[in-house]
Design goal:
alpha/beta; eight-stranded mixed sheet; four-stranded antiparallel sheet; 18 strands
Length: about 450
């Protein structure tokens, strides 16, 4: 037969064996020793990936291990969750809801959008976030599924396994969770509570080496509630410039600062340091569940070149972008939300922070640090004055057991002997929580003796 040898066609694996008018399809498998085809697997061996095994959220790891049994005689007050919607006292503005309704009713946003977001939506973000000192165009905006995904994209595009990144301590636990899962090493630079959580620059710069590929700056801060002034931000930029390290600026709480403080986007203070600024709707517009974030690419000296921009586009194609309905509402949300809404939110957060700071400042053994923005206050614990407890995890665990007040131990942020309070709860709840914390501390506080260094029993 022409073109067929032993039933195998010269031009392919499977040949056509012709017999009269019929054609028989002959598989190569029939011509190979059956023992060679035996599966190499004799049993099921499905294993979790290395990335999944290396992924650990410190907050979940610590909280899930705590024995959290509230006092049945006292209603639970959760001051641990960074979600401003939990208690229902901080609704988003009607204009935000109206923009969403219009997007839904238009029937224009039910399909797939480009992975980096609709052009019109990117333009809206660029126009809203643009500053004279740091202009933006739509091409400089990548939309993401929440600020968390924006941070993941930024880390992924800047770092390879084996590289290291610099992150604040205490700092948002997601940075480490993402980095370690990708094989990226983490170096923690210290923030100083006695200086309202400013950066220890000597420590920061001592961590830099040839493998450092990113400096993460979170301002305003979670968990600290701190806001860096212009001069401090300029010092950060000097470190980055001197060491040629790009900055990932986590600015999700941007403009959520108390009266008397100013928020300065990092990119508005530098013309030479390339910056990926991450933000979104979650906190300022009080809609974290809508999952709308963005990356702003600031690179006026073209240091990133085309590689970082193209890399972000490719990485965004892994999940095809954020919710299209929210994208459709973005222009209306950004342009139509009245200033009074922002002012009202900030006024409430400032008032609650002052209540909490004032009440806990007079509790023996506690040292709160007054915040300047965001939604949090950090409280130091003089652990030697509470000898029943080995650490902040035990302290906060017993606070739940006895007083039904849940504060997040700062060990979750790799900063032991502090705890974080979320100040978004209703004012009367904030007051009640402080009363219970005071009562708890009064029961367990053991002052130093006047005559010796030993604790009174």
């Amino acid at each position: 037969m022409n073109g067929v040898q032993n039933g195998i066609h010269r031009n392919g694996i499977n040949g056509n064996f012709m017999n009269g008018n019929s054609v028989h399809h002959v598989s190569i498998n029939t011509l190979v020793n059956p023992s060679k085809l035996k599966s190499q697997r004799q049993r099921w061996t499905v294993r979790a990936s290395e990335m999944s095994k290396n992924t650990l959220n410190p907050i979940r790891a610590i909280v899930d291990g705590m024995k959290l049994t509230p006092n049945p005689d006292k209603p639970m007050i959760a001051l641990s969750i960074g979600d401003p919607t939990v208690f229902g006292n901080l609704p988003t503005d009607d204009s935000v809801l109206q923009a969403m309704k219009e997007a839904i009713n238009s029937h224009k946003y039910n399909g797939y959008a480009p992975s980096v977001g609709y052009q019109k939506s990117r333009e809206a973000v660029a126009n809203f976030c643009s500053r004279p000192e740091a202009p933006l165009e739509a091409k400089d905006v990548i939309l993401a599924s929440g600020c968390s995904q924006a941070i993941e994209l930024a880390i992924s595009v800047l770092c390879n396994p084996g590289d290291n990144i610099l992150i604040p301590c205490p700092g948002f636990s997601l940075y480490k969770t993402l980095a370690v899962s990708m094989g990226i090493h983490v170096k923690l630079y210290n923030l100083l509570p006695e200086k309202s959580w400013e950066i220890d620059f000597q420590h920061l710069e001592s961590l830099v080496d040839e493998k450092t590929t990113c400096l993460i700056v979170n301002n305003p801060s979670n968990p600290c509630g701190s806001v860096f002034n212009k001069e401090h931000l300029q010092k950060i930029l000097s470190v980055a410039s001197r060491n040629c390290i790009p900055i990932l600026a986590d600015e999700i709480y941007g403009d959520m600062v108390f009266p008397g403080c100013d928020f300065h986007p990092m990119a508005s203070l530098s013309s030479d340091v390339p910056i990926l600024s991450c933000g979104g709707l979650a906190k300022r517009w009080l809609v974290p569940g809508w999952r709308m974030g963005w990356i702003l690419i600031h690179d006026r000296n073209n240091i990133f070149g085309t590689g970082i921009r193209e890399g972000l586009v490719k990485l965004s194609q892994r999940i095809l972008g954020p919710c299209t309905v929210v994208q459709g509402a973005l222009e209306g949300i950004l342009n139509n939300t009245p200033p009074s809404f922002y002012h009202s939110t900030i006024s409430f957060l400032k008032s609650n922070s002052e209540i909490c700071f004032s009440e806990l400042s007079t509790v023996p053994g506690l040292n709160p640090v007054m915040p300047s923005g965001a939604m949090y206050i950090m409280v130091g614990i003089e652990m030697e004055q509470f000898p029943e407890f080995q650490n902040d995890v035990e302290f906060t665990e017993r606070l739940v057991t006895e007083q039904s007040v849940f504060c997040l131990p700062a060990t979750a942020f790799e900063y032991p002997n502090f705890f974080r309070i979320v100040v978004t709860v209703p004012e009367e709840t904030m007051v009640e929580a402080c009363v219970r914390i005071r009562e708890f501390c009064a029961c367990h506080y053991r002052p130093y003796s006047q005559d010796s260094n030993e604790l009174d029993q």
